[in-house]
Amino acid sequence: MTTTEDNSARRDWEERVGRPSDALSGAGGGLPAPAGLRAADGTGHVLLDWEPVAGALGYLVHRADAPEGPFEPLDHRGEDVLAVPHPPYADTLAEPGRRHWYRVASVDDAGPGPLGPAAPVDGVPLARRAGAAPAGVRIAVDAAGEPARLPGVWRRMIGAEHLSLLTFDPARQPVPGHDVAADYDRALRIVREEIGVRTVRAHGTFLPENVTVRPDGGFDFAGLDDVYDRLLATGLRPVVELSFMPRELAADPDATVFQFLAGISPPADWDRWGELCRALTVHLRDRYGVDEVATWEFEVWNEANLEVFWTGSQHDYHRLYEVAARAVKDVDPRIRVGGPSSAAAAWVGPLLDHCRAHDVPVDFVSTHTYGNAPLDFRPLTRAFAEATGRPEPEVLWTEWGTTPTHFHPRGVPDTAFAAPFVLRGVTAALDSADALAYWVASDYFEELGWPPRLCHGGFGLLTVGNLRKPAFWAFHLLTRLAATGPRVPAQVTGDGAGGLVQALATRAADGGTVELLAWNGTLDQTKTDGDPALDRTVEVTVSGLAPGAGYAVTSRRVDRGHGDIRAVWHGLGGADQDWPDERQWEKLRAADQLPAEPLPRVTADPDGTATVTFDLPMPGVRSLRLGRVPSSTSEQRS
What we know:
Layout: H1 4-17, E1 38-42, E2 45-49, E3 58-64, E4 72-73, E5 89-91, E6 101-108, E7 111-112, E8 135-142, E9 157-162, H2 180-195, E10 199-203, E11 212-213, E12 219-220, H3 222-233, E13 237-242, E14 256-257, E15 262-263, H4 270-288, H5 290-293, E16 297-300, H6 314-331, E17 336-342, H7 348-358, E18 364-370, H8 378-388, E19 394-401, H9 418-429, E20 435-438, H10 470-484, E21 487-488, E22 490-494, E23 501-507, E24 513-520, E25 536-543, E26 550-558, H11 565-571, H12 582-591, E27 597-603, E28 610-616, E29 620-628, H13 631-637
């Protein structure tokens, strides 16, 4: 039976992702609601937990002010998919002292299923107001625990608008005083060197500056050669996005988008589209080497489920994908091809259905989401592999970030709020995805106009001029964490554990160094500037250390007072001006760092345990490194 509330949930989903077709997981959001929904009172929030449902891609949380409803999906203002990938979930929109009831629906590729029973059953949780001191959270790190791999899903790929910015004419300066090509090249080198990124996924492989259709019908890729030569010189490889449609091949040559006039029409002749994709693949193979190009991903189009990027139907996209995939594989079957590169986590199931029904190659599925942690598409890819006997497609989130809105009015991508958001999203993807590509590396972005000021709510990890934003530092700290060694257990308990405060820990192979990364954040973008009720005091207990040994402790942090270049700029008067003057640039570059802060040394007790306590605001990130002091030094200092 479908209730009015269930229909409301489905309409909400369809408004965000488009009306989906039947998927591998079945038609119509057929999964049962999760059992065991629990709602617990917390300081500044209500913490929800429930039992996972097999086959669920995620869960849609609903709230009401009365047990009988009406229940509406919780909108954390992320402007995209509202479903979350897993429990627990912290409702920081809850008003302190006000009663709320909750219900949760499981989500499959067709949308949300029926709502489960309301919670709470016994008592009504209220979000507590802040006390005189921050509420407490405890993190227990087991340095002697079973080590586990920390997948580098954040390092495999990053986004860039269109790579022809690498060849931008230095005589043109849309941002006064800045060479776009030089800044862009430096930005890509920074994300490779300091985050460890390996590939770049960008729009517009077939833009006019890259590809020319010759009078004889052939294709000239000289522009793209210049672009890819420059990219490869940075040490990065391209993800080849097969877009947009050259004017000469388009059914509607006047259907374009953005200032660079990207063609969004289906081809007039489908064979010509296949010839273009085949010719490109042959050209790249011959220029860069067959074994090199065999390591690249080829992604078909960008967000064809949005009218702004595709004037055809979903059926037309499937044809576009099939023709392209077969053309690429005809050149070298080792090259990985995938799609649908969709907005709002849509169209994945239908593409897999099409590939299964028509024996079409698909090595990965790709999709996008913003303002949320990525959903879990493994139920679909596993079902595809079981049904076809083929290898399971990888799951690549080829766009992801704090918001789908460029020039964000509240500047969310520039703020400290983005730092714990990044870490929450990566943690969700560790066991469910093969790549999570932040959109984008640099604030140089032409789609809707050039940056009008230094901090303008742009998508980039780096500003114009390559100052590092808080989100950049979050990735940097994550890369430092992974470099220490394998992952070890880090259990978070207390007020907001899992829903607000999360943690990852690693240890060096010799056991002499233990690294912790903890963060405090919410998906709720009404709290971009923080909320005192959500600040926390964290007590970290590290076990498995050498009994009696001394450990030097250092910390790095990202919050509104540390690693926040926008806050520095505003402190220099930037809230009232567009661009820094020379003196201000010098001060900004001097502040563009995340120094290690020494904390008091600790000594492990006879059980091999040591404790460190620190404050963790919301939004905030804190790293902690314990490095064993040589015994002779330890004895001299004791």
